[in-house]
Fold:
Amino acid sequence: MRGFIDSHAHLADPAFDADRDEVIARARGAGAEGILCIGESIAAAARARSIAQSHRGFIWHTAGLHPHDAASFDAARDISAIRAELAAGAVAVGECGLDYHYDNSPREQQRAAFAAQLALAGEHDVPVVVHTRDAEHDTIAMLRDAAAQRVRGVLHCYTGSHALAEIALAAGWFVSFSGIVTFRKWTDDALLRLVPDDRILAESDSPYLAPVPNRGKRNEPAWVAHTVAQLARVRGSDPEAMAATVATNARRLFNLAPVA
Ligand SMILES: [Zn+2]
Structure:
């Protein structure tokens, strides 16, 4: 399979410290034409930037603060750090959002950090990469407010309700699927068919969530090919066409330069 883009990989994670270059080479070998390297903290964003700078035109980076770490959010310090990453080439704000499943940070602080990052994305006219889990009511309210300010983004690793997906799509947002859709326990193929061809993305969320047949191993961007193949099967599409679809959509959302 040629030509997919992994729209969400934590390549800056220490899980890749020993063999990051080989992981990136395997992604190219598997047919990837790009990887979004997610900066889910200020420190991770700086590492993601240097990875992207070493692989220009193939890897791009993002900068944000994950809802798990919202308790440590300091608006003055963190928003200016994310702003500096945008000035240095980050293509999106995030990963940010709301996670009421783990509640690793107080919900009020999660909302404050998310709202500040949505506002920053609006101010800079860049997309947002959003993590949302068991927080649909507040996600819908905040997404609607952001969309009214012309903010666009992606619900990443999406496994939520059809209702939230439909609201996001109506607001012009994208929906990204991970290896979870290949798991035996996955039952919501209707969700995979609900997202139109011009709004669907695929991602590894590596090092987490390796798709079948590699489930349980450290995940890597090369294996997005399995997720793209599953999306194609469920949607009645050709795998190569599905790869091209997710790549085109990632380029459009994140405003990535076309292939050289
Ligand atoms: Zn992530």
User: Anything to note?
Assistant: The beta strands are 4-9, 32-37, 59-61, 93-99, 128-133, 153-155, 174-177, 200-202. The chain has nine helices and eight strands. The pocket of zinc ion is lined by residues 8, 10, 38, 40, 95, 205 (CB under 6 Å). The two ends are 19 Å apart (CA to CA).
